Amino acid sequence: MRRVYTPRYQQNLKPAMRLAPGRVSVVLSLLGLLLLALLARAIYLQVVQQDFLQNQGDARFRRTLLLEANRGEIADRNGEPLAISTPVQSIWASPVDMDLRTVPAAKLQQLARLLEMPLDEVKRKLSDNKREFVYLKRQISPALAQQVMALEIPGVAKQQEFRRYYPAGEMLAHVVGFTGVDGKGQEGFELTREKMLAGRHGSRTVLKDRRGHIVEDLAVIEPPRDGQTLQLSIDKRIQYLAYRELKAAMDVNKAKAGGVVVLDARTGEVLALANTPSYNPNNRAVLEPEMRRNRAVVDMFEPGSTMKPFPIAMALDAGKVTPDTVFDTQTYRIGPATVRDTHPKPVMTVTQIIQKSSNVGSSKMAAMFSPEEMWTFYRQAGFGQSPQTGFPGESAGRLRDWQNWRPIEQATMSFGYGVSVSLLQLARAYTVFTNGGALLPVSFTRLSVPLPGKGLIKPGTAKKMRDMMVTVTEEGGTAVRAQVLGYHVGGKSGTARKLVGGAYAANKHIGLFVGFAPATTPRLIVAMMIDEPGAGAYYGGAVAGPAFSNIMAGSLRILGVEPDAPSNNTLIPEHQISEVREET
């Protein structure tokens, strides 16, 4: 009889516990197949599905955090801050990393209360489990952010951002501009110098647990590079003065709008530029389109008699006239049109033509040149082309091609009709008279070395023009109210009717005065514009002259400019002023 072999480990077992040899083979085979299946699954997951699983893991726990760069400061020429960034916190959440059902209702209510948000809105944002990132509230105080984080709601986190603050507020809003909630420039130099100011953001790639806590860094931290400081040519002290006086002139004259530009007469730097109406860039809850208009840079208007010095300078520089040349200034006709003065005189010298603002006299000097010659001179003075300051939306004005001019149009262009300019263009053009006959480029940034100008008239001609333009602010001129105690002031007033519906309105005007001081050695140019004065007076000398005087006087004191007039110089009392009022 054949003997059956019994394994040693079964020899001591009871009969009921012993396995048949066939069963052992089956169990071992099943265990082997299971091991092979596990090995195959592991190979499948580690090789075939590796990218997919890695991506899924990264999506749940790997985060790349933005390390925000500190936006560069904007400062005035003396280093006074005009735009600075202050640290704030933003609260965000990762809905895919949280189960809203596990968050106590009381904590959600506290979260909504702290963030001043409706509870339904908070729940809606947190329950969108298809999103990995959603802002709950941006730019809140660090203290408030700390209260939110103390709630310890899984998936809710904070990150540091920067909020822009503008110490100068509304008085420099149109120059500095503002940034949006994402920190990018929206207006002014915040927009034009975005790349310079923004710097470069850094990044940090980390592994987070399900509660949003950082476990470890997964890559080298790329540090942020802060933005650069932008130093403007603006003098905050003069800017404050200019804005204050502009607002006061607006109120007194019940005007629709206004603008003022203050230039360094030697360098072309913009020391102040203000507009009304304005807005507070720190609180833009109510911001109408009209408030955002940088009128001094983008608005075009016909400059009226403030253009008369240019055809006169052209004739003087060409040797066709002298300051004492006498003209017949009686009303005359050009074709069907009539050229006349508001206060006509039979004859005037060139000096008197400027002082009394004679349309007839300026048009006759313009007629000494061909349309092409006059167009070229205007063009070289900067009219009809952009000042190229880099400021957004700056106007090039309008100067039609000379080939389309009619004789009457050449005449009207000599006294500021048929040509359109911006206030900044007009102020810049007057650097021809203050800088030895050279047109200076305009700069909104502080210059370490003045940029060279482009010669337009001879230095001697510029000197004669300054002397003649001083008579405008003296007794019998059109802008006696523009005088400044202790200084000789030169300039030109202008009063232009506004074009409405293709016709010139009888009751809508722009009052202008552009002038410089001290007239012997000019230091400043101030261009003043009052749009649609509604208190009765509308002549440039009357509505713009007083504000010009206050701005010029204060600015000269701020800069410590020595007086060039006798120490016993006195202003003409208001009731004794006999001012010639021009219509253009």
TrEMBL record:
Tell me the pathway. Answer: Cell wall biogenesis; peptidoglycan biosynthesis
| Enzyme type, top EC level | hydrolase
Organism superkingdom = Bacteria
EC number per UniProt: 3.4.16.4
Q: Which Gene3D superfamilies match?
A: 3.30.450.330, DD-peptidase/beta-lactamase superfamily, Penicillin-binding protein 2a (Domain 2)
Is Cell membrane there in the keyword field?
A: yes
Q: Which InterPro entries match?
A: Beta-lactam/transpept, Beta-lactam/transpept-like, FtsI_transpept, PBP_dimer, PBP_dimer_sf, PCN-bd_Tpept
- What Pfam family is a match for this entry? Transpeptidase
The listed locations are:
Membrane
Q: Where is the Penicillin-binding protein transpeptidase domain?
A: 258-552
Q: Which reaction does it catalyse?
A: Preferential cleavage: (Ac)2-L-Lys-D-Ala-|-D-Ala. Also transpeptidation of peptidyl-alanyl moieties that are N-acyl substituents of D-alanine
Q: Is Repeat set as a keyword in this record?
A: no
Give the UniProt keywords, A-Z. Answer: Carboxypeptidase, Cell cycle, Cell division, Cell inner membrane, Cell membrane, Cell shape, Cell wall biogenesis/degradation, Hydrolase, Membrane, Peptidoglycan synthesis, Protease, Septation, Transmembrane, Transmembrane helix
Every copy of the Penicillin-binding protein dimerisation domain together lies at: 68-217
Q: Which HAMAP family match?
A: FtsI_transpept
Q: Member of which family?
A: Belongs to the transpeptidase family. FtsI subfamily.
Its annotated function is as follows:
Catalyzes cross-linking of the peptidoglycan cell wall at the division septum.
This protein's name: Peptidoglycan D,D-transpeptidase FtsI
Source organism per entry reads: Vogesella fluminis
